Protein backbone atom coordinates (compact mmCIF):
# COMPACT_ATOMS: atom_id res chain seq x y z
CA UNK A 1 0.00 0.00 0.00
CA UNK A 2 1.31 3.48 -0.87
CA UNK A 3 1.36 5.72 2.20
CA UNK A 4 1.80 9.45 1.89
CA UNK A 5 4.64 10.70 4.09
CA UNK A 6 4.71 14.20 5.57
CA UNK A 7 7.42 15.49 7.89
CA UNK A 8 8.05 18.48 10.12
CA UNK A 9 10.78 19.56 12.48
CA UNK A 10 10.03 21.09 15.86
CA UNK A 11 12.20 22.80 18.47
CA UNK A 12 11.08 23.17 22.08
CA UNK A 13 13.01 25.12 24.74
CA UNK A 14 13.89 23.31 27.97
CA UNK A 15 12.75 24.76 31.30
CA UNK A 16 16.45 25.11 32.17
CA UNK A 17 19.70 24.03 30.50
CA UNK A 18 20.22 20.28 30.98
CA UNK A 19 23.81 19.23 31.61
CA UNK A 20 25.08 15.65 31.41
CA UNK A 21 28.67 14.36 31.28
CA UNK A 22 28.83 14.57 27.47
CA UNK A 23 27.35 18.08 27.04
CA UNK A 24 24.62 20.62 27.81
CA UNK A 25 21.36 21.13 25.91
CA UNK A 26 18.98 24.08 25.99
CA UNK A 27 16.30 22.81 23.64
CA UNK A 28 15.01 19.63 22.06
CA UNK A 29 14.96 19.26 18.26
CA UNK A 30 13.04 16.44 16.66
CA UNK A 31 11.41 15.28 13.44
CA UNK A 32 7.72 14.38 13.31
CA UNK A 33 6.18 12.28 10.56
CA UNK A 34 2.61 11.59 9.51
CA UNK A 35 1.71 8.57 7.35
CA UNK A 36 -1.63 8.74 5.56
CA UNK A 37 -3.34 5.76 3.90
CA UNK A 38 -5.31 6.15 0.62
CA UNK A 39 -8.55 6.02 2.67
CA UNK A 40 -7.41 8.74 5.04
CA UNK A 41 -6.23 6.86 8.15
CA UNK A 42 -3.33 8.71 9.84
CA UNK A 43 -0.38 7.36 11.83
CA UNK A 44 2.21 9.56 13.56
CA UNK A 45 5.82 8.90 14.45
CA UNK A 46 8.81 10.78 15.83
CA UNK A 47 12.57 10.71 15.35
CA UNK A 48 14.74 12.35 17.99
CA UNK A 49 18.39 12.19 16.95
CA UNK A 50 21.26 11.54 19.36
CA UNK A 51 24.62 12.67 18.03
CA UNK A 52 26.63 11.12 20.86
CA UNK A 53 24.94 7.72 20.98
CA UNK A 54 23.74 7.09 17.43
CA UNK A 55 25.86 9.57 15.48
CA UNK A 56 22.76 11.16 13.93
CA UNK A 57 21.79 14.82 13.57
CA UNK A 58 18.44 16.43 12.77
CA UNK A 59 19.95 17.51 9.45
CA UNK A 60 20.70 13.84 8.60
CA UNK A 61 17.07 12.96 9.30
CA UNK A 62 15.73 15.84 7.21
CA UNK A 63 17.91 14.81 4.29
CA UNK A 64 16.82 11.16 4.58
CA UNK A 65 13.10 11.83 4.95
CA UNK A 66 13.07 14.11 1.88
CA UNK A 67 13.90 11.05 -0.21
CA UNK A 68 10.86 9.09 1.00
CA UNK A 69 7.61 11.02 0.33
CA UNK A 70 5.72 7.82 -0.55
CA UNK A 71 6.25 4.72 1.58
CA UNK A 72 5.26 1.32 0.18
CA UNK A 73 4.25 -0.51 3.33
CA UNK A 74 1.84 -3.03 4.78
CA UNK A 75 0.63 -2.04 8.25
CA UNK A 76 -1.65 -5.02 8.85
CA UNK A 77 0.97 -7.27 10.46
CA UNK A 78 3.34 -6.38 13.32
CA UNK A 79 5.96 -8.76 11.93
CA UNK A 80 5.76 -7.21 8.47
CA UNK A 81 6.11 -3.77 10.03
CA UNK A 82 9.27 -5.05 11.73
CA UNK A 83 10.59 -6.54 8.50
CA UNK A 84 9.99 -3.32 6.57
CA UNK A 85 11.53 -1.14 9.29
CA UNK A 86 14.77 -3.12 9.33
CA UNK A 87 14.99 -3.15 5.52
CA UNK A 88 15.02 0.66 5.33
CA UNK A 89 18.37 2.28 4.60
CA UNK A 90 17.75 5.31 6.83
CA UNK A 91 19.15 6.56 10.17
CA UNK A 92 18.03 4.49 13.16
CA UNK A 93 15.83 7.24 14.64
CA UNK A 94 14.04 7.84 11.32
CA UNK A 95 13.39 4.09 11.07
CA UNK A 96 11.96 4.36 14.61
CA UNK A 97 9.60 7.14 13.52
CA UNK A 98 8.33 5.05 10.60
CA UNK A 99 7.95 1.96 12.83
CA UNK A 100 5.92 3.95 15.37
CA UNK A 101 3.78 5.52 12.63
CA UNK A 102 3.00 2.12 11.08
CA UNK A 103 2.10 0.65 14.47
CA UNK A 104 -0.14 3.65 15.15
CA UNK A 105 -1.94 2.83 11.86
CA UNK A 106 -2.06 -0.88 12.78
CA UNK A 107 -3.69 -0.23 16.15
CA UNK A 108 -6.07 2.44 14.79
CA UNK A 109 -7.21 0.04 12.07
CA UNK A 110 -7.99 -2.50 14.84
CA UNK A 111 -9.75 0.15 16.98
CA UNK A 112 -7.52 -0.73 19.95
CA UNK A 113 -4.89 1.14 21.97
CA UNK A 114 -1.44 -0.01 20.84
CA UNK A 115 -0.33 -1.12 24.34
CA UNK A 116 -3.18 -3.64 24.56
CA UNK A 117 -2.18 -5.23 21.22
CA UNK A 118 1.50 -5.49 22.23
CA UNK A 119 0.97 -7.24 25.56
CA UNK A 120 -1.39 -5.15 27.67
CA UNK A 121 0.37 -5.79 30.99
CA UNK A 122 -0.26 -2.64 33.09
CA UNK A 123 -2.48 0.42 32.77
CA UNK A 124 -0.03 3.04 34.12
CA UNK A 125 3.64 3.55 35.01
CA UNK A 126 5.53 5.56 37.62
CA UNK A 127 8.18 7.77 36.05
CA UNK A 128 11.34 9.22 37.53
CA UNK A 129 12.36 12.82 36.95
CA UNK A 130 15.87 13.70 35.80
CA UNK A 131 18.11 16.33 37.36
CA UNK A 132 21.08 17.49 35.27
CA UNK A 133 24.59 17.99 36.62
CA UNK A 134 24.72 21.01 38.94
CA UNK A 135 26.53 22.01 42.10
CA UNK A 136 25.61 19.54 44.87
CA UNK A 137 23.53 22.07 46.84
CA UNK A 138 21.62 23.04 43.67
CA UNK A 139 20.95 19.41 42.78
CA UNK A 140 19.60 18.87 46.31
CA UNK A 141 17.38 21.95 46.01
CA UNK A 142 15.97 20.80 42.67
CA UNK A 143 15.43 17.31 44.10
CA UNK A 144 13.34 18.71 46.92
CA UNK A 145 11.28 20.82 44.50
CA UNK A 146 10.47 17.74 42.42
CA UNK A 147 9.52 15.72 45.51
CA UNK A 148 7.19 18.53 46.55
CA UNK A 149 5.57 18.29 43.10
CA UNK A 150 4.83 14.58 43.65
CA UNK A 151 7.83 12.76 42.18
CA UNK A 152 9.07 9.80 44.23
CA UNK A 153 11.91 8.62 41.97
CA UNK A 154 14.82 10.93 41.14
CA UNK A 155 17.40 10.33 38.44
CA UNK A 156 20.61 12.24 39.09
CA UNK A 157 23.01 12.93 36.28
CA UNK A 158 26.61 12.40 37.38
CA UNK A 159 29.89 11.49 35.71
CA UNK A 160 32.00 14.64 35.49
CA UNK A 161 33.71 14.81 38.90
CA UNK A 162 33.89 11.54 40.87
CA UNK A 163 34.52 13.14 44.27
CA UNK A 164 31.78 15.71 43.88
CA UNK A 165 29.42 13.01 42.59
CA UNK A 166 29.54 11.32 45.99
CA UNK A 167 28.67 14.65 47.60
CA UNK A 168 25.82 15.17 45.11
CA UNK A 169 24.16 11.91 46.08
CA UNK A 170 24.71 12.55 49.81
CA UNK A 171 23.22 16.06 49.61
CA UNK A 172 20.20 14.84 47.66
CA UNK A 173 19.57 11.96 50.09
CA UNK A 174 19.90 14.32 53.05
CA UNK A 175 17.45 16.74 51.43
CA UNK A 176 14.73 14.27 50.44
CA UNK A 177 15.02 11.80 53.32
CA UNK A 178 13.85 8.19 53.16
CA UNK A 179 11.06 6.93 50.94
CA UNK A 180 12.28 8.62 47.75
CA UNK A 181 14.18 6.46 45.27
CA UNK A 182 17.45 7.77 43.84
CA UNK A 183 18.91 6.36 40.65
CA UNK A 184 22.03 7.79 39.01
CA UNK A 185 23.38 7.99 35.46
CA UNK A 186 27.06 8.70 34.77
CA UNK A 187 26.58 8.73 30.98
CA UNK A 188 29.96 6.93 30.49
CA UNK A 189 31.77 9.62 32.50
CA UNK A 190 33.78 7.59 35.03
CA UNK A 191 36.90 5.47 34.56
CA UNK A 192 36.49 1.86 35.70
CA UNK A 193 38.46 2.58 38.89
CA UNK A 194 36.51 5.76 39.66
CA UNK A 195 33.23 3.95 39.05
CA UNK A 196 34.07 1.17 41.50
CA UNK A 197 35.14 3.71 44.13
CA UNK A 198 32.18 6.08 43.66
CA UNK A 199 29.58 3.30 43.60
CA UNK A 200 30.91 1.69 46.79
CA UNK A 201 30.55 5.06 48.53
CA UNK A 202 27.14 6.15 47.18
CA UNK A 203 25.67 2.71 47.94
CA UNK A 204 25.18 3.78 51.57
CA UNK A 205 22.71 6.46 50.40
CA UNK A 206 20.39 3.77 49.05
CA UNK A 207 20.92 4.15 45.33
CA UNK A 208 18.51 2.02 43.33
CA UNK A 209 20.67 1.61 40.22
CA UNK A 210 23.71 3.06 38.46
CA UNK A 211 23.38 3.66 34.75
CA UNK A 212 26.25 3.49 32.24
CA UNK A 213 29.14 4.04 34.68
CA UNK A 214 31.87 3.90 32.04
CA UNK A 215 32.48 3.93 28.30
CA UNK A 216 29.86 2.21 26.14
CA UNK A 217 32.35 -0.07 24.39
CA UNK A 218 34.33 -1.19 27.45
CA UNK A 219 32.43 -4.41 28.16
CA UNK A 220 35.35 -5.88 30.12
CA UNK A 221 35.38 -2.78 32.32
CA UNK A 222 31.61 -2.90 32.76
CA UNK A 223 31.80 -6.55 33.79
CA UNK A 224 34.45 -5.65 36.38
CA UNK A 225 32.34 -2.78 37.73
CA UNK A 226 29.28 -4.98 37.97
CA UNK A 227 31.19 -7.70 39.85
CA UNK A 228 32.36 -5.18 42.44
CA UNK A 229 29.18 -3.13 42.65
CA UNK A 230 26.73 -3.46 45.53
CA UNK A 231 24.21 -1.54 43.37
CA UNK A 232 22.53 -2.93 40.20
CA UNK A 233 24.20 -1.77 36.97
CA UNK A 234 22.04 -0.55 34.08
CA UNK A 235 23.41 -0.25 30.55
CA UNK A 236 22.14 2.41 28.16
CA UNK A 237 24.71 3.62 25.62
CA UNK A 238 26.27 0.10 25.50
CA UNK A 239 23.04 -1.57 24.34
CA UNK A 240 21.34 -0.15 21.29
CA UNK A 241 19.94 -3.25 19.62
CA UNK A 242 19.09 -6.88 20.38
CA UNK A 243 22.55 -7.89 19.19
CA UNK A 244 24.13 -5.59 21.82
CA UNK A 245 21.83 -7.09 24.47
CA UNK A 246 23.25 -10.52 23.65
CA UNK A 247 26.77 -9.11 24.04
CA UNK A 248 25.93 -7.59 27.43
CA UNK A 249 24.57 -10.96 28.54
CA UNK A 250 27.68 -12.81 27.33
CA UNK A 251 29.90 -10.39 29.23
CA UNK A 252 27.66 -10.52 32.34
CA UNK A 253 27.87 -6.73 32.24
CA UNK A 254 24.28 -5.74 33.10
CA UNK A 255 21.57 -6.17 35.71
CA UNK A 256 19.25 -3.86 33.79
CA UNK A 257 19.11 -2.78 30.13
CA UNK A 258 17.68 0.62 29.25
CA UNK A 259 15.52 0.50 26.11
CA UNK A 260 15.01 3.59 23.94
CA UNK A 261 13.00 3.49 20.73
CA UNK A 262 15.54 5.56 18.79
CA UNK A 263 18.24 2.94 19.47
CA UNK A 264 16.06 -0.07 18.50
CA UNK A 265 14.52 1.43 15.33
CA UNK A 266 11.20 1.61 17.12
CA UNK A 267 8.86 -0.63 19.04
CA UNK A 268 9.30 -3.99 17.28
CA UNK A 269 13.10 -3.84 17.75
CA UNK A 270 12.54 -2.91 21.40
CA UNK A 271 10.36 -6.00 21.89
CA UNK A 272 13.31 -8.15 20.87
CA UNK A 273 15.58 -6.45 23.41
CA UNK A 274 12.96 -6.95 26.11
CA UNK A 275 12.45 -10.65 25.39
CA UNK A 276 16.19 -11.36 25.18
CA UNK A 277 16.73 -9.47 28.45
CA UNK A 278 13.94 -11.36 30.19
CA UNK A 279 15.39 -14.69 29.07
CA UNK A 280 18.66 -13.78 30.84
CA UNK A 281 16.98 -12.51 34.03
CA UNK A 282 17.82 -8.92 33.15
CA UNK A 283 15.09 -6.38 33.77
CA UNK A 284 14.46 -3.47 31.42
CA UNK A 285 14.30 0.22 31.96
CA UNK A 286 12.77 2.52 29.34
CA UNK A 287 14.19 5.95 28.62
CA UNK A 288 14.08 8.80 26.15
CA UNK A 289 16.25 11.45 24.45
CA UNK A 290 14.35 14.68 23.80
CA UNK A 291 11.12 13.38 22.31
CA UNK A 292 7.95 15.46 22.38
CA UNK A 293 4.70 14.26 23.96
CA UNK A 294 4.17 12.08 20.85
CA UNK A 295 7.41 10.12 21.21
CA UNK A 296 6.96 9.76 24.96
CA UNK A 297 3.43 8.47 24.39
CA UNK A 298 4.79 5.79 22.04
CA UNK A 299 7.38 4.76 24.66
CA UNK A 300 4.68 4.51 27.36
CA UNK A 301 2.54 2.29 25.13
CA UNK A 302 5.47 -0.14 25.05
CA UNK A 303 6.11 0.28 28.80
CA UNK A 304 2.49 -0.55 29.63
CA UNK A 305 2.54 -3.55 27.27
CA UNK A 306 5.60 -5.48 28.45
CA UNK A 307 6.04 -7.14 31.85
CA UNK A 308 9.84 -7.04 31.83
CA UNK A 309 10.01 -3.23 31.46
CA UNK A 310 10.06 -2.21 35.12
CA UNK A 311 11.98 1.08 35.42
CA UNK A 312 10.58 4.19 33.78
CA UNK A 313 12.49 7.32 32.79
CA UNK A 314 9.64 8.91 30.87
CA UNK A 315 10.20 12.58 31.59
CA UNK A 316 11.59 14.44 28.59
CA UNK A 317 8.28 16.16 27.72
CA UNK A 318 8.08 17.27 31.36
CA UNK A 319 11.37 19.17 31.05
CA UNK A 320 10.30 21.45 28.16
CA UNK A 321 8.52 24.77 28.60
CA UNK A 322 6.18 24.12 25.65
CA UNK A 323 4.41 21.14 24.10
CA UNK A 324 4.26 20.06 20.45
CA UNK A 325 1.01 18.13 21.00
CA UNK A 326 -1.93 18.36 23.31
CA UNK A 327 -3.22 15.07 24.69
CA UNK A 328 -1.22 11.83 24.68
CA UNK A 329 0.30 10.35 27.85
CA UNK A 330 -1.18 11.92 30.96
CA UNK A 331 0.71 12.80 34.15
CA UNK A 332 -0.65 12.97 37.66
CA UNK A 333 2.02 13.42 40.32
CA UNK A 334 4.48 10.89 38.85
CA UNK A 335 1.97 8.43 37.38
CA UNK A 336 1.67 8.34 33.61
CA UNK A 337 -0.86 6.55 31.45
CA UNK A 338 -1.84 6.38 27.77
CA UNK A 339 -5.45 5.28 28.28
CA UNK A 340 -7.87 3.41 26.04
CA UNK A 341 -8.09 5.47 22.83
CA UNK A 342 -7.19 3.60 19.58
CA UNK A 343 -3.63 3.69 18.23
CA UNK A 344 -1.28 5.99 20.13
CA UNK A 345 -4.36 7.85 21.38
CA UNK A 346 -5.64 11.36 20.89
CA UNK A 347 -2.72 13.69 20.12
CA UNK A 348 -3.51 17.13 18.72
CA UNK A 349 -0.57 18.65 16.84
CA UNK A 350 0.37 22.29 17.47
CA UNK A 351 1.11 22.94 13.81
CA UNK A 352 2.04 26.58 14.46
CA UNK A 353 5.23 25.35 16.17
CA UNK A 354 6.20 22.99 13.32
CA UNK A 355 8.41 23.64 10.28
CA UNK A 356 7.28 21.58 7.30
CA UNK A 357 9.95 19.53 5.50
CA UNK A 358 7.82 17.49 3.07
MG1 LIG B 1 21.15 7.06 30.21
List the helices and strands and how they pair.
Elements: E1 2-20, E2 23-36, E3 42-47, H1 51-54, H2 58-66, E4 70-72, H3 78-87, H4 92-110, H5 114-118, E5 125-126, E6 129-131, H6 136-148, E7 153-157, H7 162-176, E8 181-185, H8 192-202, E9 207-211, H9 219-228, E10 233-235, H10 242-250, E11 256-259, H11 267-279, E12 283-286, H12 293-305, E13 309-312, E14 325-327, E15 330-332, E16 335-337, E17 347-349, E18 354-356
Parallel strand pairs: 6-7, 7-8, 8-9, 9-10, 10-11, 11-12, 12-13
Antiparallel strand pairs: 1-2, 1-4, 1-18, 2-3, 5-16, 14-17, 15-16
Helix pairs in contact: 3-4, 6-7, 7-8, 8-9, 10-11
The structure holds magnesium ion.
What does the model show?
- The protein is an alpha/beta fold and 358 residues long.
- The chain has helices at 51-54, 58-66, 78-87, 92-110, 114-118, 136-148, 162-176, 192-202, 219-228, 242-250, 267-279, 293-305, and strands spanning 2-20, 23-36, 42-47, 70-72, 125-126, 129-131, 153-157, 181-185, 207-211, 233-235, 256-259, 283-286, 309-312, 325-327, 330-332, 335-337, 347-349, 354-356.
- The strands form four sheets. An eight-stranded parallel sheet has the order 6-7-8-9-10-11-12-13, with helices on one face.
- Strand 6, helix 6 and strand 7 form a beta-alpha-beta unit.
- Helix 6 (136-148) packs parallel to helix 7.
- The two termini are 19 Å apart.
- Bound molecules: magnesium ion (MG).
Amino acid sequence: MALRVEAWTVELPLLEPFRISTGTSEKTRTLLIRLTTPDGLEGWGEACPSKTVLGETLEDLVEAVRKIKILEADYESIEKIHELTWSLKVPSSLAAAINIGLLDLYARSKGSPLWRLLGGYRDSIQTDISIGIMEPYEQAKRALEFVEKGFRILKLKLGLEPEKDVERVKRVRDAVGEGVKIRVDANQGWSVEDAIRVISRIASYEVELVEQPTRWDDFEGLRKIRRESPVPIALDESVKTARDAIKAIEYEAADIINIKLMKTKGITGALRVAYISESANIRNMIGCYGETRLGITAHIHLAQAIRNIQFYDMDCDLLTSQQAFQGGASIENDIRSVGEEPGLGKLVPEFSKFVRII
